[in-house]
Structure formats: structure tokens, C-alpha cells
């Protein structure tokens, strides 16, 4: 089956994101379709990753179920039997939420933007950290680093005080604490299965006045997954996530012009990394599932 890049379902289109198409389903529900598009550095790349949308959707559903005792999600547990079979694994029915335009990021290791800031200032999101830390070092305790979602360009780091001004102090404290709790529970689970979750970003929204997890959660697109058995601080890590594509692009692209096509070998390795993450975390064989 060729990669699904564009979708055309018999429902009103609600919006198209970088990698997801969203359709209206009645008055209070949405159908989210994860395509095989992949984005990096705020660009949608011209080369899709086969089955990527199916992996992201099925892994998100797995985590929604795993985290039910921590916080509800917007996922509605029904199968949309009227959809074409090629959409079976990449589609979720969800309750419509009033989304908070913030990415709630929990970090357990010093990497990515946090590492870049630390090298320059010794801080992360303005928080002072001990001196002498290395790239990929495990932090003494997870830290919370929210960002404001940008409609155009890069997301903007914000302080906890700014978040509290946006949604109220009580809600900000609640979602900060829930983000850390979700990260710690997922980290423990994944570590036992050979994956270190270095960091993760979550999105939340209000549904009938109650806060819930929305969008995707703990996927290779929204988290950094490292191989536990090769983990060694002081350098970049072997990963099972989108960082592999980012690392390749930095060697061939200026990030300002139209992005290049991905070579076949990069596409293949990216697919294999996503599948490995899914298999380790769920204990299931994705290739068997997709062939059923």
C-alpha cells in the first residue's frame, strides 16, 4: 500500500495540520487521521514515511489506555467501520476539546533545546542547573518547560508564570504536575522495555469543563526515545524517533529553503526505528498487525 499523504473522507474537513487531517463528526466529535507526512524544523518534508501514521495512532491509543488512571483523554473507544480499510489503523474518533495553545514539555535528560541553552547560560528555561553536566545527562528530577504553540514559525518558550496568566494558576499547577507524573510513569514503563524516554511533549484541552490529554502522546514524533543498552552521557544517543531525520537534514539542508527529498535508505531506517519503538513499548509486532 502506498503511503497516505492526502486524505479525502466523506466528512466536513475541520483542519489540516502538518501530519494530521481532522474531520468533523457530528456536533461534538472529530475524526483524526494521521497521514504518513513527516515534518522537521517547521517544514513538511516532501518524502513520506510509509505506515508512519498508523504507528503514531496505534501508539497514542496504547498510551491513552495506559494513562487512564492518571488522566482522561479525548479518545472515544469505537471502531469506525464505515471508513476504507486503509484508514483502519491511522484513525481516531475523539471528543472535541477546547485546546490550550501550549506544548507541555517534561524533560528527564539534558538534550535538545535544553542542552543548547545550558551550554550557553547554565540554565534551562531560566532555571539554574548544576555546573558540569554533560549532553544527555539524566537530571536529578524531571523539569517542566512549556512552550507557546506558534501558528507560524518556531514555538516560543514561556515561563510558568506566563502559563498561569493564560489558564489560571490552579490549572497551570495541575497540568504541570500531571505532565511530570505522566512522564515519570511512562519513563519507568519504557525503561523496563529497553527505551529511555528523554523528554516528551503533551497537549491538553477542556472537554465539558474537564481537562483531558488530546492529540498524540509519547510517540516518536512527540518524544525522544533512546536505546537503554547503548545509553552513554556526553554525546548524542541512539534513538528511535524523529531526531534521526533531523540529524540527516542538518547535513544537507539550510532549513530555510524548500526541504530536499529523503533518500530511500533514510526513509527505510526511519520506518524501522518507529516500528522498533512501537514493538518494544507495546509488546506487539507492528508488521503482523499491519498485514492482517
UniProtKB/TrEMBL annotation:
Limits of the SAICAR synthetase/ADE2 N-terminal domain: 14-254
GO cellular component, one term: cytoplasm
Family matches, as Pfam families: SAICAR_synt
UniProt keyword annotations, A-Z: ATP-binding, Ligase, Nucleotide-binding, Purine biosynthesis
Disulfide bond found in the keyword field: no
Gene Ontology MF terms in the entry: ATP binding; phosphoribosylaminoimidazolesuccinocarboxamide synthase activity
Reaction equation(s) it catalyzes: 5-amino-1-(5-phospho-D-ribosyl)imidazole-4-carboxylate + L-aspartate + ATP = (2S)-2-[5-amino-1-(5-phospho-beta-D-ribosyl)imidazole-4-carboxamido]succinate + ADP + phosphate + 2 H(+)
GO biological process terms held by the UniProt record: 'de novo' IMP biosynthetic process
InterPro entries per record: SAICAR_synt/ADE2_N, SAICAR_synth, SAICAR_synthetase_CS
Keyword ATP-binding: yes
Pathway named in the protein's UniProt entry: Purine metabolism; IMP biosynthesis via de novo pathway; 5-amino-1-(5-phospho-D-ribosyl)imidazole-4-carboxamide from 5-amino-1-(5-phospho-D-ribosyl)imidazole-4-carboxylate: step 1/2
EC number: 6.3.2.6
Domain of life, source organism: Bacteria
Enzymatic class: ligase
Sequence similarity: Belongs to the SAICAR synthetase family.
Protein name: Phosphoribosylaminoimidazole-succinocarboxamide synthase
Organism from which the protein derives: candidate division WOR-3 bacterium 4484_18
Gene name of this polypeptide: purC
Amino acid at each position: 500500500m502506498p503511503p497516505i499523504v492526502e486524505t479525502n473522507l466523506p466528512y466536513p474537513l475541520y483542519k489540516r495540520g502538518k501530519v494530521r487531517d481532522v474531520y468533523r463528526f457530528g456536533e461534538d466529535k472529530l475524526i483524526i487521521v494521521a497521514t504518513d507526512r513527516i515534518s522537521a524544523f517547521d517544514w513538511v518534508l516532501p518524502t513520506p514515511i510509509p505506515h508512519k501514521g498508523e504507528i503514531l495512532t496505534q501508539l497514542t491509543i496504547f498510551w491513552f489506555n495506559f494513562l487512564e488512571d492518571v488522566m482522561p483523554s479525548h479518545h472515544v473507544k469505537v471502531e469506525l467501520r464505515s471508513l476504507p480499510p486503509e484508514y483502519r489503523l491511522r484513525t481516531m474518533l475523539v471528543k472535541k476539546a477546547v485546546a490550550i495553545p501550549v506544548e507541555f514539555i517534561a524533560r528527564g535528560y539534558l538534550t535538545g533545546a535544553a542542552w543548547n541553552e545550558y551550554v550557553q547560560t547554565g540554565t534551562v528555561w531560566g532555571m539554574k542547573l548544576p555546573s558540569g553536566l554533560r549532553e544527555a545527562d539524566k537530571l536529578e528530577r524531571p523539569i517542566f518547560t512549556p512552550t507557546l504553540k506558534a501558528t507560524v514559525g518556531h514555538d516560543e518558550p514561556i515561563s510558568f508564570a506566563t502559563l498561569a496568566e493564560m489558564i489560571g494558576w490552579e490549572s497551570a499547577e495541575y497540568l504541570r504536575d500531571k505532565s511530570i507524573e505522566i512522564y515519570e510513569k511512562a519513563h519507568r514503563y519504557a525503561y523496563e522495555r529497553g527505551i529511555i524516554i528523554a523528554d516528551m511533549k503533551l497537549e491538553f484541552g477542556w472537554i465539558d469543563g474537564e481537562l483531558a490529554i488530546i492529540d498524540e502522546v509519547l510517540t516518536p514524533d512527540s518524544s525522544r526515545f533512546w536505546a537503554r543498552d547503548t545509553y552513554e552521557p556526553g554525546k548524542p544517543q541512539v534513538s528511535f524517533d524523529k531526531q534521526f531525520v533531523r540529524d540527516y537534514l542538518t547535513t544537507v539542508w539550510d532549513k530555510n529553503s524548500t526541504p530536499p527529498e529523503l533518500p530511500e535508505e533514510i526513509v527505510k531506517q526511519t520506518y524501522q526505528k518507529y516500528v522498533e519503538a512501537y514493538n518494544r513499548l507495546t509488546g506487539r509486532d507492528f508488521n503482523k498487525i499491519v498485514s492482517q
